[in-house]
Structures are given as structure tokens and as C-alpha cells.
From TrEMBL:
<dbReference type="GO" id="GO:0005886">
    <property type="term" value="C:plasma membrane"/>
</dbReference>
<feature type="domain" description="I/LWEQ">
    <location>
        <begin position="1153"/>
        <end position="1392"/>
    </location>
</feature>
<dbReference type="GO" id="GO:0098609">
    <property type="term" value="P:cell-cell adhesion"/>
</dbReference>
<dbReference type="InterPro" id="IPR002558">
    <property type="entry name" value="ILWEQ_dom"/>
</dbReference>
<dbReference type="GO" id="GO:0051015">
    <property type="term" value="F:actin filament binding"/>
</dbReference>
<dbReference type="GO" id="GO:0005737">
    <property type="term" value="C:cytoplasm"/>
</dbReference>
<dbReference type="Pfam" id="PF21896">
    <property type="entry name" value="Talin_IBS2B"/>
</dbReference>
<dbReference type="InterPro" id="IPR035964">
    <property type="entry name" value="I/LWEQ_dom_sf"/>
</dbReference>
<dbReference type="Pfam" id="PF21865">
    <property type="entry name" value="TLN1-like_RS"/>
</dbReference>
<dbReference type="InterPro" id="IPR054060">
    <property type="entry name" value="TLN1-like_RS"/>
</dbReference>
<dbReference type="InterPro" id="IPR037438">
    <property type="entry name" value="Talin1/2-RS"/>
</dbReference>
<dbReference type="Pfam" id="PF08913">
    <property type="entry name" value="VBS"/>
</dbReference>
<keyword id="KW-0963">Cytoplasm</keyword>
<dbReference type="GO" id="GO:0005178">
    <property type="term" value="F:integrin binding"/>
</dbReference>
<dbReference type="Pfam" id="PF01608">
    <property type="entry name" value="I_LWEQ"/>
</dbReference>
<feature type="coiled-coil region">
    <location>
        <begin position="1360"/>
        <end position="1387"/>
    </location>
</feature>
<protein>
    <submittedName>
        <fullName>Talin 2a</fullName>
    </submittedName>
</protein>
Length: 1401
């Protein structure tokens, strides 16, 4: 045997050993010697059969192709299975069940006789006996269900009694059949008795299975379904047999229905329906009203003798009672699972009860089909039942296959559904033949056709009973069970009293003149009413989340009192400092607690508005955070020296607690009821207030954390300024008034200002016109004055560090310097308006290209239509005229590169305007072609898109070449870009002219595509690195499009149809473009070796060249369609296919030994993470290019604030990249340790990894990208420091989420988690550095002082009056803002409860 077979036999041997021990144990504990001997004999048969099975398996492995060996192996396996069944049947209790089954089978033979014996009793006696035996049989079925969960002796007794009761019931049913006057009615009675016999046998078999293996999945469900099937079959028979008894049928049916729904209250850990808690309350109210009316109707109709109306009232009462019981059971389940210590269950993949019911119904229907006594109507009815249930089974299989992630189960469900559908179709054919001719031959064909269907349904039902698909019941805590008990007690009392009431009404309707019975009926009516009242009260009092809301409200009230005590102690300076922990640790605790509270606001709000079962869990989680919040807040406050800061912390903490209290009151009022819309506004308002409170305290925390770092840097700067201030002031004054001496003197000030002064002087001399040069010079001088004042104030603050007035002056000076730096940047940009215009035009053209891509999508989808009835001819002249205007603009743009900035700006603006007009008229022209010809629309839009791309390249080349010499390399690039521009415009003109010519437009589209691909290849072969990299998996996905496009091209060449050619041109353009882009991006990935990179680039070029040859060959075939030329198409396509194969092999080589299936869910998740890391690394590269103005660095000088911002931002980008990579490594460890599955069995498994970590990594990448943009804008003077600080804080927050997502299942002591923590600390440190640099810049920033004082007297007076007017207006706005803030606080105060206001007073 091979190793695999040996491994599989080891568990078999162990199982046989365990079976032998168990058999000896059972035999030794049995008092009956015969039973003990039978047990040992059957176990011995199993052992001998297993030994023979192993021997035959060995022989089959030795000669795997021997059919005889395979047949012997199957026979031996079947014999072992039979021996195992015999062994199980020898267990105590099993033999009695088998005897009961045999007894039922023997009794059922009475139904096979052709003629029923005549009745020996009166109809009333037979009816009474049938009702009595039916009730006894129904009760015995319940006892069998109960006994199957108990001992074997109990099951033996219950099964024996069940068989006896069945025998009596069968005799009573046969007696009733003798009273039927019509043959069809008698056949129906006998058929129902057969159904009851089959259901009874299935009940005993299910009880037997459960007693053998109580832990088997779905066994309890199948037993309950079998018991309900017995009850339903009895009800059907009673309904058929007792139609003539006045009112008895309805009462008996109602009593049986009540007995059946009583079981809903026995499993409080399973949901009864899909009703929400408040739907349950509504259902109870509606059904209680219906029940009250029905009870009154029962009494009234008994008095009047209106039997039909009496029956209707009994039926309505029964339905209402069933609805009340169902609502009570569901409400009980929701109360139990809503307890914070309980866990909700999960629904299984399939419902085994549905499969079992369908299986039973199909078997019964098939039995009726093949019954020789079945009438044509019965055959058609049975066929309808079969079709209905097989359709339901197929739909269930389809849903299960779509839900499961197990490929084996998915395939099995699909195959089973096919087998059921095919066998059903075959059976329907035979039924149609039987319906046309009820001959023995057709009936025999029908019998043969039922066998495959029954077998397929049986196999499917067995597979659906797999424990893997079973539901997971809820785990309800002891507190949850205690909360359920009042509801259960009231519901049981209601059912008991209702049962007595119906029994009393059943006797009254026969004998309405019985006064004692009327008083009994009234007593039962009162009991039912009292039970329903107590049920409604219990459900309302036990509403989910109410108890938890009350407990949480008490908890937060206590926390508010604690914070008030701390505030009083702080006011009296008696707040004791915590010496057992550092300030930094307390701040981290406070920050994390506030963030967790912020994360819970939305879940609590959502639960309060519509998820009652989650309300208790969420409010309990929220309340648990407030005690550590108060402790951390008081601890931080105790370590602060500034009294104002202390009160700010305590007040904001109290505000957060009070807003949470308001949120809990609103949540309790809403209660999770989606229909209580009047409470939703209050919940949303409370959530908004709570979010604002969280934001306020987070701002204060971040300011306090950054202030600790700012103070040290300020002290050092002030100390250096103190040492130089006496020497620097006169020299700096001289440097502003004497520009000739500026270079030598500036080296003694600071490195930053000296570089700015030198560059500013050069810019002022070269700027045009002269007014801009004067403006640059003036603003640089004003910056020098601001630096003087800043150094003076720094020296003054060093002398008196506690002087608050001096601090405010220093802040104003710092702001003034920052604003003046922005003014200098603005002036420099004004002097460079030609280049700026090129940048603006390039941005506009980029937007146009994106808009054209969108238009192509609409055109491809066939939704690009004209707004009115117009033809392409109406737009052709406009397109041609605008295209010629664009050529003129191109010439101006090229000549503008060698001219001044004004002319360059004019040319760039004109070209951007013209390309906008051109795209507009081309889009109108494409729309006028009509959505019936989308391929031609795409060809036309692609042509103008090529022009736009060429213009973008031309503008970029013009910007680089502006002001350069004629022999500069950038000039050659400009000329090359101009040639491409002219070529693409010419191509557009040709395409426009060919649009209306159906004979040539396909050829024209193909020529344009070939030219476009050649231009793409030129860009691909350049040495310029791509802006980003991609994965080999993405590269392979793009190469697949080449294969499809190649096949289309060959087909188009063979057909020579213009429509095919146009489609091929459009498809080829996109496929080649995507392949070249991803090929270059994948090849330039940093982890790809140089050899693999060169291979990828080489075969990318080879594939493109081969494809161009293929398209040119198609073009040649169109012109000369000979057989030889068409043969060349296959040769060209083989060349392309070979290059594609090489590309795929190269992509696999990029991954090396780590090549994995791209469709693997875990690989997809890791790919997302690595994509996030790549995005961050790209952001870091972007930051590397964000250099401030070039200045000669000196090693002994510090950086200015712009460089500090850039350095800190680069640190954050690098740290976040390391963090995401460390997170990926941590996840690999989880997979290796088995804590997270490599391929989850279910889509929701390990959600923290597959969703939380991926989304958190994306957030980190997005936040870092925003940070880079903010840093760039801040350096260039386009954005405030506040935006930069906000971006840095967003990076820190998203990093914290990433850490939490990684730590869900990780080993805290692992190497990957250690690296993860280091990476997280690096991000935090880098964020702090950036915030510190930006806040220092903000600290040194003054209000805008770009004031030019007028020299004339009158103008000067007017200037002063205007300034005073602005000052008064600002003061008035400040006063209005203060009043608004006071009103907001007053309104918030009104939301607080009265007792809190008194405490506050």
C-alpha cells in the first residue's frame, strides 16, 4: 500500500478498537444473556468484515484496473455497512424501536386489500373513536420525541406505546373508511392512512438516530420535523373524515395546531422567525385583538347554534394563538441574545427541515403516482406536488452554492440540483403519457421514473444534513434565561387556558343548553385574557437594551460626579498629583480611550434607531470606557501646572460625559425601534454633540502633546538669537538698505534668509516687467524687517519668559514672517506667469483626457445620443475649423518657448481653450452619429483623445524648453512633440472625413490605431521610469486582453467587414496600451531583478511590434484580399502569441518561488496591503521631489521651517511604508500559526484581517498621500499650517486603526508584532515631528501685513479711516461669535436632566 492508504487505515483501526471495547461494555451491562450474545456476535461480524475489507482494498490497490477486484471490494464494503447496522440495532432500546417499526409495517398491510370491510359502528361512534385515537397517537408521537433525548428504556416504552396507538388509530381509520359512500372518498382516506404510516415510520427512525448519536448535527431538527409531519398527516385525515360533525373538526384542528406550536417555547436559544422585537410587540397586539373578537364570536355562535360561523371563529382564534406564540417565542429569543453576556447564533447554509419536508412530500406523491387505485385527479395533484418541491430544492441548492466558499460543496450542490431537475423532467414526461392513457405499461414507466428522483432527493437530503451546513444556536447566559422566563410562563399559561377553552367550546356547540359548561367557558376566557395581558407586560418590560441603558446611565452619572469633585479640587488647588505614572502614558491612555468612545458613537446610534438586539451590547461597551476616561483625564490634569489648562481638560471631559448621557437617554427612548421615527432626530442630535465633544478633547490633547516638544525648540532658538541680537540688528538693517553688500552680510544672519536674499535679488533683476521685479525686491526687504522684529521679540521673551504680553507679540511676529514668505512666493510666481500658464493648461488638458475616457465608456455602452435630430454633417465643418485653429496655436506655443513669458502664457491659454472647444465639437459630432454605431463613435473620440495627449506632451516640452538656448536638448524634445502633434491633428482630420464613408472608415480607424500604438511604443521604449509600479498579477491580467484582440484581428482580416475592422481597431488600441503600461510598471518594480526587467521590456516591445505587423497585414488584406495574404495573418498571430507567452513567463519570474494563485482570497488581501505600501512609497518619492528653493547648505546651521516640514513628512511616509509591510509580515505569521486560515471556509471568517486590515492600510496610504499634498502646498505658500497639522493627525489616527486590526489575533511576543510596534512608533514619532514643525511655523506667523502706505495726505487719512472701520467690524463679529457660543451652551444645558442641573448648581 502507498503512504496515503496507510494513513487512512490508521483511524479505521483505532475506530474498530474503540468499537470492540464499547461492544464488550454494552454486553457486560446487559442483564439479558441473549442480547449480550447478539451484541458480541454482531461486533465480531463487523471485525471480520473489516479485515476482509482491508484485504480487498489492498488487492484493489495492487491491481487498480481489475474490475473484478473493484466489484468484490464494493460487495465487502456493503456487507460491513450491513454488519454495522446490525450492531447498532443490538443496542438497548434499538430492538424495541425495530419491533415497533415492524409492527407498524404489519398493521399497514391492512390498507393493501382492495375492498374495505363494511362499518360495524355508527358514524358518531366511529368519529369519536377516530378523534380519541388520533389524540393518543399525537401524544405518543410527542412522548417518542421526548424519550429520544432520554434513556434507552424510555425510548423502548415510548416506541412500544406509539406502535400500539398506531394500530388502534389504523383500525379507527379503516372503520371511518367503511362509512364513506363514494369510492374516491374512500381512496383518499386510505391514501391519508398510508401517509400517516410512512410519517410514523420516519418518526421512529429519526428517534432511533437521535438516541444513537444525540450530538449529530440537525438530528433534533429532523426529529421535530418528523413529529410535525405526523401531526399534519393526522390533521389531514381528520379533516377529511369529520366534515359532517358540527364544529368538531375545527376545534380538533385548532387543538392540534396549539399542541404543535407549543414546541416553539422549548428552544429559547433558536430564532422562531425573522420578526424584530418591535414587530413582535405589534404582532402580539394585533393577534390579541383578533383573539378577543374570536372568543366573543365562539360564545355567541354557541348560543345561536350558527355552526359555520362558530367554525370560522375557532379558526381565527387558532391562527391568532399561533401568531401570539410565535411572537412570544421570537421576542423571548431576542431578549435572551440581547443580554451582554449572551452570543447570538448564526443561520446555517441550508435548512435541513426544508429538505426533509420536501423529501417526505416527494416520496408520498410518488407513492400516490404509482398506486394502481389513484384517480386521474390524484395523479395530477401528485405531479403538482413533485414539481413544486423539486423546484424549491433546486432553488435552495442554487442559493447554497452561491453562499458557500467551499468549492467541493459548491460543486456538489450544483450537481445535485442538476440530478433532481433531470430526473424530475423524465418523470414529468411519463406522467404526461400516463395522463393520456392510464394503461399498465404507462403506469409501470411512471414507477420506473420515480426511482431516480427519489434516490436523487434522498442523496441531496443526506448531503444537506452535513454538520458543516448546520446552524449555530445562540449561547444565552443565565441572566438571559432569567429574562426569558416571564415571557415563557405567560405564553404557556395562554396556551393551556386556550386549550381548555376550545375543548369546552367543542362540547358546547353540540349541547349549548348546559349551564355548568357555560360557567367553565367564562372562567377559561378570563384566564386567557389575563395571560395575554401578562404576556404583553412581560414583552414590554423586557425590551432589549433597556436594562443595560439604565445601568449605563447610572455608571456615567457616577463618572460625572467624580469629574465634578476633581474640578472642585482643581479650583481649590488641592488636586493630588499621580506619581505612579508618567504624563506621556496618561496622555496616551486618554487619547486611546477618547478614540474608542468616538468609534462607538455611530454603532450606538445605529442600534438605537433600528437594531434592538445590539443596543444592550453597544451601550454597555460605551459605558465601560468612561471610568478609565475619568481616571486618565484627572491624572493628566493633576500633572499640569497651568490652571487654565486644568480646567479646560476637566470641562471638556465633563462635556463628553454629559453628551454621552444625553445619547443614552435618547437611545433608551428609541430602543432600537425603526418605526419610532419621532426619537431618531434626538438620537442624531445627541450623536452629533458627542462627536463634537470628542473632537474638542482630541484637539486639546494634540495641542498639549505637541506643546511639550515646541517649548524645547523655542528655548534653543531664543538662546541663539540672544547671543547674536546685538550684532545682527545693525548689519541686517544695512543689508536691506544697501543691496550691493547684501551677499557678504547675509552669511552672518541665517542660512535660510541669505539664500532667499540672493535668489530674490537675481529674480528681481531678471523679472519682467519691472514692476514685478520691484515687488519681489520690496517683499524680500519686508521679510528682512520681519526677521529683525522676530529676533528682538525672541530676545525679550528670553529675558522675561513668563511675560504673556511678550509671548503674544512673539506669536504675531512669527505669523508676520510666515505671511511675508507667502507674499514673496506669490511675487515670484507672478514673474513666472508663462510657466504657470503652461502648468494650468496641462492640468486642463489632463482633465479633458479624463473626460474623453468617460465619454468613450458611454459610447462603448451604446448610451451616447444626440440631444436633437442632427447629422454628423452639421458638425463636420466646425471640427475641421477648430482643428486648424489648434494647429495655429501649436505654432504659437512652439515659438513662445523662445519668446517672453507673456507670449508663452498667451499661447498656453489659447491652446487650452481651443482643445476644449475641439473636444466639445467632436463629442457633439460623435453623439450625432447615433448610439446604433458605437464603434465609429469610439474611433472619432479616440482621434481627438490622441490630439489631446499630444498637446499635453507638447505643453510639457514647451514648459521645459522655455528660456533655453536653441541647442539645448529640451528644444529637440519640443520639436519632436510638435511633430507628433501635427501628425495626430492630421489623423483627426482624415478620420472626420472618413466617418461618413462606410467603405473606408474601418481602414481609417485601423491606420489611426497603428499610429497610436507606434507612439505608445516610443514612450514605452524611453528610459523614463513610470510614475508608479504594479504587481505581476495585474500585468498578467492585462496580457490576457492581447490574446482576445489578436483573435479579433485575425477574424476581421478574414471577414474584411468594415464593422469588424473598426471593432478590432478600438479593441487593439486599449489592449496594447494597457499591456505596455502595466508591463513597464511591473518591470520597474524595485524587487524585480535587472535581467527580468530587461526581458519584460524586450518582450513587451516584441509583442507590440508583432501586433503592429499583424494590424498592418490586416490593412494589406483589406487592400488585396488574396488567400496567401490571409495565410500571413496566422503567422503574425503566432508571433504575437509567442511574445505573450514569454511575457507571462517573465511575469511569473518576477514573483520567483513566491508565485501564487491571484484568485486566492488571502493573496488578494496581501496584494491590497502591498499595494497600500507601494502607494506610500510613491508618496515618499513624491516628497523627495518637493524641494524648497535651492540654497547652499551649511553644516553648522539648522533647517528653516519649510525644510523641517518636508523632512518630517518624508519621515512619516517612510514610517507608514514600513508599518504596512510589517503588518503584512504579521499576517503571514498568523497564517503560518493556523490562527487565520489560508483560504477561509466562509466569506466572513477572519474579518479583522480580510476587511479591517485592508481598509486600514488603504486609509494609511490615502492619509499619507493627503499629507504629501498638504506639505507641498504649505511649502509653496498655497495652504495653511492647520491643513498640514490635520493631515499629520489623520495619518496618526489611521495608523492606530491599522495597529488594532493587526493585533486582533496576533502573538504579542512574535518578531513580526515587535517590528509592527516599532513601525507604529516610528509613524507616531514622525507625525509629532511634523506637527511640531508646522505649529512652530504657525506660532511665528502674524496677520497679513501687505500694506502699502500712500504718501499723499488725503489718501493717507482715507487709508487710516478704512483700517479703523475694518477693525470695528472685526470687533463686532467677535462679539457676535461670543454670543452665539453662549447660546449654544445654553441650549446644550437645556438637554440635561433636572437632577443634573441641580447638581451643577
Amino acid at each position: 500500500m502507498n503512504n496515503g492508504s496507510c494513513i487512512k487505515l490508521n483511524p479505521t483501526a483505532q475506530a474498530l478498537r474503540t468499537l470492540a471495547q464499547a461492544a464488550r461494555g454494552v454486553a457486560s451491562s446487559t442483564t439479558d444473556p441473549k442480547a449480550a450474545a447478539a451484541m458480541l456476535d454482531s461486533a465480531r461480524d463487523v471485525m471480520e468484515g473489516s479485515a476482509l475489507l482491508i484485504h480487498e482494498a489492498k488487492q484493489a490497490l495492487i491491481s487498480p484496473g481489475d474490475a473484478e477486484s473493484q466489484q468484490r471490494l464494493a460487495q465487502v464494503a456493503k456487507a460491513v455497512s450491513h454488519s454495522l447496522n446490525n450492531c447498532v440495532n443490538c443496542l438497548p432500546g434499538q430492538k424495541d424501536v425495530d419491533m415497533a417499526l415492524k409492527s407498524i409495517g404489519e398493521a399497514s398491510k391492512k390498507l393493501l386489500i382492495e375492498t374495505m370491510p363494511s362499518a360495524s359502528k355508527s358514524f358518531q361512534e366511529a368519529q369519536s373513536e377516530l378523534n380519541q385515537t388520533a389524540a393518543e397517537l399525537n401524544q405518543s408521537a410527542g412522548e417518542v420525541v421526548h424519550a429520544s433525548r432520554g434513556s434507552s428504556s424510555q425510548l423502548a416504552v415510548a416506541s412500544g406505546k406509539f406502535s400500539e396507538d398506531f394500530d388502534e388509530f389504523l383500525d379507527a381509520g379503516i372503520e371511518m373508511a367503511g362509512h364513506t359512500q363514494k369510492k374516491d372518498d374512500q381512496v383518499q382516506v386510505i391514501g391519508n392512512l398510508k401517509n400517516i404510516s410512512m410519517a410514523s415510520s420516519k418518526l421512529l427512525l429519526a428517534a432511533k438516530s437521535l438516541s444513537v448519536d444525540p450530538a449529530a448535527a440537525n438530528a433534533k431538527h429532523l426529529l421535530a420535523a418528523a413529529a410535525r409531519a405526523v401531526t399534519d398527516s393526522i390533521n389531514q385525515l381528520i379533516t377529511l373524515c369529520t366534515q359532517q360533525a358540527p364544529g368538531q373538526n375545527e376545534c380538533d384542528n385548532a387543538l392540534r395546531e396549539l399542541e404543535a406550536v407549543r414546541g416553539m417555547l422549548d428552544n429559547p436559544n433558536e430564532p422562531v422567525s425573522d420578526l424584530s422585537y418591535f414587530d413582535c410587540i405589534e404582532s402580539v397586539m394585533e393577534n390579541s385583538k383578533v383573539l378577543g373578537e374570536s372568543m366573543a364570536g365562539i360564545s355567541q355562535n354557541c348560543k345561536t347554534g350558527d355552526v359555520p360561523a362558530f367554525g370560522d371563529c375557532v379558526g381565527s382564534a387558532s391562527k391568532a394563538l399561533c401568531g401570539l406564540t410565535e411572537a412570544a417565542g421570537q421576542a423571548s429569543y431576542l431578549v435572551g441574545v440581547s443580554d451582554p453576556n449572551s452570543q447570538a447564533g448564526h443561520q446555517g447554509l441550508v435548512d435541513p427541515i426544508q429538505f426533509a419536508k420536501a423529501n417526505q412530500a416527494i416520496q408520498m406523491a410518488c407513492q400516490n403516482l404509482v398506486d394502481p387505485g389513484s384517480s386521474p385527479s390524484q395523479v395530477l395533484s401528485a405531479a403538482t406536488i413533485v414539481a413544486k418541491h423539486t423546484s424549491a430544492l433546486c432553488n435552495a441548492c442554487r442559493l447554497a452554492s452561491s453562499k458557500t466558499t467551499n468549492p467541493v460543496a459548491k460543486r456538489h450542490f450544483v450537481q445535485s440540483a442538476k440530478e433532481v431537475a433531470n430526473s424530475t423532467a423524465n418523470l414529468v414526461k411519463t406522467i404526461k403519457a400516463l395522463d393520456g392513457d392510464f394503461s399498465d405499461e404507462n403506469r409501470n414507466k411512471c414507477r420506473v421514473a420515480t426511482a431516480p428522483l427519489i434516490e436523487a432527493v434522498e442523496n441531496l437530503t443526506t448531503f444537506a444534513s452535513n454538520p458543516e451546513f448546520a446552524s449555530i444556536p445562540a449561547q444565552i447566559s443565565r441572566e438571559g434565561f432569567a429574562a426569558q422566563e416571564p415571557i415563557h410562563q405567560s405564553a404557556r399559561s395562554m396556551l393551556d387556558s386556550s386549550t381548555y377553552l376550545l375543548k369546552t367550546a367543542r362540547s358546547l356547540v353540540i349541547n349549548p343548553k348546559d349551564p355548568p359548561t357555560w360557567s367553565v367557558l367564562a372562567g377559561h376566557s378570563r384566564t386567557v385574557s389575563d395571560s395575554i395581558k401578562s404576556l404583553i407586560t412581560a414583552i414590554r418590560d423586557k425590551a432589549p437594551g433597556q436594562r443595560e441603558c439604565d445601568s449605563s446611565i447610572d455608571n456615567i452619572n457616577k463618572c460625572i460626579r467624580d469629574i465634578e469633585q476633581a474640578s472642585l479640587a482643581a479650583v481649590s488647588q488641592n488636586l493630588a498629583s499621580r506619581d505612579d505614572i508618567s504624563l506621556e502614558a496618561l496622555q496616551e491612555q486618554l487619547t486611546s480611550t477618547v478614540q474608542e468612545i468616538g468609534h462607538l458613537i455611530d454603532p450606538v446610534s445605529t442600534a438605537a434607531r433600528g437594531e434592538a438586539s445590539q443596543l444592550g451590547h453597544k451601550v454597555t461597551q460605551l459605558a465601560r470606557y468612561f471610568e478609565p476616561l475619568i481616571m486618565a483625564s484627572v491624572g493628566v490634569t493633576s500633572k499640569l501646572r497651568d490652571h487654565q489648562q486644568q480646567m479646560t481638560f476637566l470641562d471638556q471631559t465633563k462635556t463628553l460625559a454629559e453628551s454621552a448621557l444625553q445619547m443614552l437617554y435618547a437611545a433608551k427612548e428609541g430602543g432600537g425601534n425603526p418605526k419610532a421615527s419621532h426619537t431618531h432626530d434626538a438620537i442624531e442630535e445627541a450623536a452629533q454633540l458627542m462627536n463634537e465633544a470628542v473632537e474638542d478633547i482630541m484637539v486639546t490633547l494634540n495641542e498639549a502633546a505637541s506643546e511639550v516638544g515646541m517649548v524645547g525648540g523655542m528655548v534653543e532658538s531664543i538662546a541663539e538669537a540672544m547671543a547674536k541680537v546685538s550684532l545682527l540688528i545693525p548689519q541686517m538693517t544695512k543689508s536691506v538698505t544697501c543691496p550691493d553688500e547684501l551677499g557678504g552680510l547675509a552669511s552672518q544672519v541665517t542660512v535660510d534668509y541669505s539664500q532667499l536674499a540672493v535668489q530674490g535679488r537675481l529674480a528681481a533683476h531678471t523679472a519682467e516687467p519691472e514692476e514685478i521685479g520691484f515687488q519681489i525686491k520690496t517683499r524680500v526687504q519686508e521679510l528682512g524687517h520681519g526677521c529683525i522684529f522676530l529676533v528682538q521679540k525672541a530676545g525679550a521673551l528670553q529675558i522675561t519668559p513668563s511675560d504673556g504680553f511678550t509671548k503674544r507679540e512673539l506669536i504675531q511676529c512669527a505669523r508676520a514672517v510666515t505671511e511675508k514668505v507667502s507674499l514673496v512666493l506669490s511675487a515670484l510666481q507672478t514673474g513666472n506667469k508663462g510657466t504657470q500658464a503652461c502648468i494650468t493648461a496641462a492640468s486642463a488638458v489632463s482633465g479633458i483626457i479624463a473626460d474623453l475616457d468617460t465619454t468613450i465608456m458611454f459610447a462603448s455602452a451604446g448610451t451616447l445620443n444626440a440631444e436633437n435630430d442632427e447629422s454628423f454633417a452639421d458638425h463636420r465643418e466646425n471640427i475641421l475649423k477648430t482643428a486648424k485653429a489648434l494647429v495655429e496655436d501649436t505654432k504659437m506655443l512652439v515659438s513662445g518657448a523662445a519668446s517672453g513669458q507673456d507670449r508663452l502664457a498667451q499661447a498656453a491659454q489659447s491652446s487650452a481653450k481651443t482643445i476644449t472647444q475641439l473636444t466639445d465639437v467632436v463629442k457633439l459630432g460623435a453623439a450625432s452619429i447615433g448610439a446604433d454605431d458605437p464603434e465609429t463613435q469610439v474611433v472619432l473620440i479616440n482621434a481627438v483623445k490622441d490630439v489631446a495627449k499630444a498637446l499635453a506632451e507638447l505643453i510639457s516640452a514647451t514648459k521645459c524648453a522655455a528660456g533655453k538656448a536653441a541647442d539645448d536638448p529640451s528644444m529637440y524634445q519640443l520639436k519632436s512633440a510638435a511633430k507628433v502633434m501635427v501628425t495626430n491633428v492630421t489623423s483627426l482630420l482624415k478620420t472626420v472625413k472618413a466617418v461618413e464613408d462606410e467603405a473606408t472608415r474601418g481602414t481609417r480607424a485601423l491606420e489611426a490605431t497603428i499610429e497610436c500604438i507606434k507612439q505608445e511604443l516610443t514612450v514605452f521604449q524611453s528610459r523614463d521610469a513610470p510614475n508608479k509600479t504594479t504587481t505581476p498579477e495585474e500585468f498578467i491580467r492585462m496580457t490576457k486582453g492581447i490574446t482576445m484582440a489578436t483573435a479579433k484581428a485575425v477574424a476581421a482580416g478574414n471577414s474584411a467587414r468594415q464593422e469588424d475592422i473598426i471593432h478590432t481597431a478600438n479593441l487593439s488600441r486599449k489592449a496594447i496600451s494597457d499591456m505596455l503600461t502595466t508591463c513597464k510598471q511591473a518591470a520597474y518594480h524595485p524587487e524585480v531583478s535587472e535581467e527580468v526587467k530587461n526581458r519584460a521590456l524586450m518582450f513587451g516591445s516584441e509583442c507590440t511590434t508583432g501586433y503592429i505587423d499583424l494590424l498592418e497585414q490586416v490593412l494589406f488584406v483589406l487592400q488585396k484580399p488574396t488567400g496567401d495574404q490571409k495565410q500571413q495573418l496566422a503567422t503574425c498571430s503566432k508571433r504575437v502569441a509567442g511574445a505573450v507567452t514569454e511575457l507571462i513567463q517573465t511575469a511569473e519570474a518576477m514573483k520567483g518561488s513566491e508565485w501564487v494563485d491571484p484568485e486566492d482570497p488571502t493573496v488578494i488581501a496581501e496584494t491590497e496591503l502591498l499595494g497600500a505600501a507601494a502607494s506610500i512609497e510613491a508618496a515618499a518619492k513624491k516628497l523627495e521631489q518637493l524641494k524648497p528653493r535651492a540654497k547652499p547648505k551649511q553644516a553648522d546651521e539648522t533647517l528653516n521651517f519649510e525644510e523641517q516640514i518636508l523632512e518630517a513628512a518624508k519621515s512619516i511616509a517612510a514610517a507608514t511604508s514600513a508599518l504596512v509591510k510589517s503588518a503584512s509580515a504579521a499576517q503571514r505569521e498568523l497564517v503560518a500559526q493556523g490562527k487565520v486560515g489560508l483560504i477561509p471556509a466562509n466569506a466572513v471568517d477572519d474579518g479583522q484581517w480580510s476587511q479591517g486590515l485592508i481598509s486600514a492600510a488603504r486609509m494609511v496610504a490615502a492619509a499619507t498621500s493627503n499629507l504629501c499634498e498638504a506639505a507641498n502646498a504649505s511649502v509653496q505658500g498655497h495652504a495653511s499650517e492647520e491643513k498640514l497639522i490635520s493631515s499629520a493627525k489623520q495619518v496618526a489616527a489611521s495608523t492606530a486603526q491599522l495597529l488594532v486590526a493587526c493585533k486582533v489575533k496576533a502573538d504579542q511576543d512574535s518578531e513580526a508584532m515587535r517590528r509592527l510596534q516599532i513601525a507604529g512608533n516610528a509613524v507616531k514619532k514622525a507625525s509629532d515631528n511634523l506637527v511640531r514643525a508646522a505649529q512652530k511655523a504657525a506660532f511665528d506667523k502674524a496677520d497679513e501685513a501687505n500694506v502699502v502706505v500712500k504718501t499723499k495726505f488725503v489718501g493717507g487719512i482715507a487709508q487710516i479711516i478704512a483700517a479703523q472701520e475694518e477693525m470695528l467690524r472685526k470687533e463686532r463679529e467677535l462679539e457676535e461669535a461670543r454670543k452665539k457660543l453662549a447660546q449654544i451652551r445654553q441650549q446644550q444645558y437645556k438637554f440635561l436632566p433636572t437632577e443634573l442641573r441641580e447638581d451643577d448648581n
